[in-house]
Design a protein that fits this description.
By secondary structure, this protein is of the alpha+beta class. It is 22% helix and 44% strand. The strands form two sheets. Strands 1, 2, 3, 4, 5, 6, 9 and 10 form an eight-stranded antiparallel sheet that branches. Strands 7-8 form a two-stranded antiparallel sheet. The relative contact order is 0.24.
Length: 167
């Protein structure tokens, strides 16, 4: 059962949540949605709001859903669901129904989709978008190492609208 908490009440380490545990970025609603696994992002404060920053490559199927919708969610799953995260990070929603393939149970609420299996959900509303460009790197190794195909991320900054924990 989900209950709402304040963003400052997130007890887990944000760096670990994103980089080690991973998250599902999901946008869309019952008429159509997509989710993807991500391990890059940030949680903090920006422009006087509790905020998140997400990075999405242009070829990801989720990109069009993020661009077309005002809200999206971040779902953090329990360790026992690592197989779901692996699947959603290596398969495209263009080719399969990720929920049907993995057993994810979608919850349609707050203008977006998140998953019943999540231990933590952050509902986000976009505030800004920008693109990473090669001329923004101060260290050329970043471009060489992370962008050999020149598929630079779009950066989405969103305010945290709601935080839900699953007891």
């Amino acid at each position: 059962m989900f209950r709402e908490i304040d963003a400052s009440g997130i007890e887990e380490n944000a760096v670990k949540l994103i980089s080690k545990d991973w998250m599902l970025i999901t946008a869309g609603d019952q008429s159509g949605y997509n989710t993807m696994t991500a391990s890059w992002g940030m949680i903090g404060e920006l422009w006087g709001k509790d905020a998140v920053t997400c990075f999405i490559r242009p070829q990801r199927h989720t990109m069009s859903f993020i661009e077309e919708n005002e809200t999206f969610s971040l779902s953090f799953l329990k360790d026992s669901h690592r197989d779901i995260l692996n699947f959603c990070g290596t398969h495209s929603g263009r080719d399969c129904d990720k929920a049907a393939e993995t057993g994810l149970v979608p919850v349609f609420s707050d203008g977006t989709t998140y998953f019943e299996q999540a231990k933590l959900v952050i509902i986000c509303k976009k505030m800004a978008v920008s693109e990473i460009t090669p001329d923004s790197f101060l260290d050329s190794e970043i471009d060489e190492k992370f962008y050999p195909d020149k598929d630079y991320h779009k950066v989405f900054v969103a305010r945290i609208e709601k935080v839900l924990v699953n007891d």
